[in-house]
Task: inverse folding
């Protein structure tokens, strides 16, 4: 039997019962499709979290209140929940950390923000002029908060483009208008350039106000939720981390860094933490989808076993006219592999479609990587071999006489 | 040349063993046309399976063209079948959703004959078996019983085997069609094929040169008196 003969026999066998072949394939299509789609969602989330962490600025060391909790430390939520970091700590960091290029203390909370009939719930971030330098913020229109604004507790606000769209309409220029946060009137003095981001962690949906104003009029205390420190270079990162840690330990009258009531993280730490989390998330999604792939594989085996039983006489005849065991097992194995391979091909298309739908309707970014496509092809071929092997072997081992006598 | 020496066959199922062949000894020369007769259950099909290398005997020796076949493994038997033996089964056993031509050329695929040659040889075999060219592309399950039997005969002779074995080839046919099919066997015999035909019926067996009568797994008679009167259906 040549390869061409095997393929022809496979074609005849599969097209002989089109409905059954198609239904069996559907199991693999759905299995592979969901794996592709889920991995795309997972990798998309990973990509967008990574880019949002990177877009927060380079060579960044972040100080947040609260104890070090190992893996899973404040990726996005949880910041500012403890109140152990004060404005005085921030001032000390500004004054004493010499390797810092820029330092920006921040007090970030969510408030209802209104403007002439429109309102939105958004993050209000009290900060200082250095924020733009630390976090790579560009101004689209107007100006950012100045040090004078901070000194004078000015009620001025700089808003992100998404917040601008929500409150004043898409593309409008709100500079000079006013917004209301917690019954305080703020004058809008600037709009930032869009950073681009995803639904659940959008850096453009934000309102910046002077940190002193936020502490006095919004929070009513002098705590800060984050101190972001931009190092002069990436080499200086670890020494800055150490310096900040020892400075704050002294200020908080503590000696053991492991029980400190604050956490100093570099951007690399956050990235590493975030990618463990998103990897776990991707794995979880993929394994749920993997279960449906397994079910599809069992469907293949079931169909192949049925086929072998139904075609027992045919197998007997083929053997009687000279087919060897290998000819028979190759034929049935090829049928199974073709089913999974074709199924895998359509599954990849389906997965891609689902990923497109998820990104356009749910606003999540998705990434289909070559490696996940290659993996799916590999997996579908492997499923064909694994689940087709037993039925094929069973067919090959039938004794020709028993098979011919089979009713 | 077929030589059977004291062949026995015992089937064992659920600790119940049944000796179907109880010491069969005979030989068939190349070019003979032999009929094997006997009542139902006498072991005719079992004997044909052994002669056709589909099965091995429980004891005894079977020499096919001087080679001992009785102890070969399954795949070695398959290689003998595809080069030396053609089967015509009682139940036709055609592939149902395949064309007549594909059915007839199937043995050539396993024999490793190149694709281009197969259709040619299958067409020749079909014509030799008496099937009309207009039926070649029909699906085999759209044929009449007689036509199916001819496709089965064409399939048996397509790789030009020296030995053709037919198990009740006329059992499902009316006597006229049956005679045509038997005529085909006589013609193949004259062309040099050894033919072993299994049947219940005396008139069918009369077409052969020699009749071996089996009863309860032993040879009851071996009658060569037909050698002279084999020409009756020459031009069928
Ligand atoms: N695979 C098998 N397992 C068990 N018993 C079998 C098997 N094949 C045949 N037999 C038994 O062997 C005996 C002979 O069977 P065989 O098919 O050779 O008879 P036969 O002469 O061809 O009969 P018929 O004319 O009805 O076809 C029967 O009793 C049958 O039940
Ligand atoms: Mg029989």
Result:
């Amino acid at each position: 039997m040549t390869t061409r003969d095997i393929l022809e026999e496979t074609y005849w066998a599969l097209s002989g019962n089109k409905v059954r072949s198609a239904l069996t394939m559907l199991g693999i299509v759905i299995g592979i499709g969901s794996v592709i789609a889920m991995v795309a969602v997972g990798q998309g989330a990973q990509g967008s979290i990574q880019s949002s962490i990177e877009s927060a600025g380079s060579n960044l060391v972040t100080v947040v209140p609260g104890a070090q909790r190992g893996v899973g430390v404040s990726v996005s939520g949880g910041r500012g929940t403890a109140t152990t970091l004060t404005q005085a700590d921030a001032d000390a960091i500004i004054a004493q950390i010499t390797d810092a290029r820029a330092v920006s203390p921040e007090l970030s909370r969510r408030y209802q923000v209104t403007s002439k009939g429109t309102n939105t719930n958004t993050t209000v971030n009290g900060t200082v002029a250095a924020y733009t330098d630390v976090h790579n913020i560009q101004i689209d229109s107007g100006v950012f908060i100045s040090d004078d604004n901070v000194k004078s507790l000015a009620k001025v606000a700089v808003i992100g483009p998404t917040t601008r769209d929500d409150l004043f309409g898409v593309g409008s220029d709100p500079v000079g208008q006013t917004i209301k946060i917690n019954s305080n009137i703020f004058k809008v003095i600037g709009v930032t350039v869009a950073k681009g981001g995803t639904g659940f962690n959008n850096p453009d949906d934000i309102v910046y106000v002077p940190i002193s104003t936020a502490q006095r009029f919004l929070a009513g205390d002098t705590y800060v939720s984050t101190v972001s420190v931009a190092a002069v270079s990436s080499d200086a990162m670890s020494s800055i981390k150490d310096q900040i840690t020892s400075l704050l330990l002294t200020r908080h009258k503590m000696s053991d860094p492991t029980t400190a009531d604050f956490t100093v993280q570099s951007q690399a730490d956050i990235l590493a933490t975030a990618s463990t989390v998103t990897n776990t998330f991707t794995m979880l999604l993929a394994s749920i989808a993997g279960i449906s792939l397994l079910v599809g594989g069992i469907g293949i085996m079931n169909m192949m076993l049925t086929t072998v039983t139904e075609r027992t006489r045919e197998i007997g005849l083929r053997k009687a006219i000279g087919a060897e065991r290998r000819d028979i097992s190759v034929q049935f194995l090829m049928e199974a592999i073709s089913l999974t391979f074709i199924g895998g091909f359509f599954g990849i298309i389906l997965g891609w479609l689902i990923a497109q739908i998820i990104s356009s309707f749910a606003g999540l970014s998705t990434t289909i990587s070559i490696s996940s496509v290659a993996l799916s092809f590999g997996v579908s071929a492997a499923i064909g071999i694994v689940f087709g092997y037993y039925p094929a072997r069973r067919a090959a081992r039938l004794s020709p006489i028993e098979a011919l006598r089979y009713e | 040349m077929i030589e059977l020496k004291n062949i026995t066959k015992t089937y064992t199922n659920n600790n119940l063993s049944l000796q179907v062949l109880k010491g069969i000894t005979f030989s068939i020369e190349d070019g003979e046309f032999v009929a094997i007769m006997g009542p139902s259950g006498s072991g005719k099909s079992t004997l044909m399976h052994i002669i056709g290398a589909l099965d091995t005997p429980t004891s005894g020796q079977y020499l096919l063209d001087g080679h001992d076949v009785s102890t070969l493994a399954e795949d070695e038997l398959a290689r003998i079948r595809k080069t030396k033996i053609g089967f015509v089964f009682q139940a036709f056993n055609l592939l149902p959703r395949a064309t007549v031509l594909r059915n007839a050329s199937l043995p050539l695929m396993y024999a490793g004959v190149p694709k281009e040659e197969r259709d040619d040889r299958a067409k020749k075999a079909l014509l030799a078996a008496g099937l009309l060219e207009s039926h070649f592309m029909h699906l085999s399950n759209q044929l009449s019983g007689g036509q199916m039997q001819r496709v089965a005969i064409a399939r048996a002779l397509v790789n030009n085997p020296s030995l053709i074995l037919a198990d009740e080839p006329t059992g499902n046919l009316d006597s006229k069609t049956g005679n045509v099919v038997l005529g085909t066997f006589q013609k193949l015999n004259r062309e040099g094929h050894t033919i072993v035909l299994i049947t219940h019926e005396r008139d069918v067996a009369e077409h052969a040169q020699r009749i071996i009568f089996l009863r309860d797994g032993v040879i009851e008679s071996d009658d060569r008196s037909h050698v002279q009167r084999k020409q009756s259906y020459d031009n069928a």
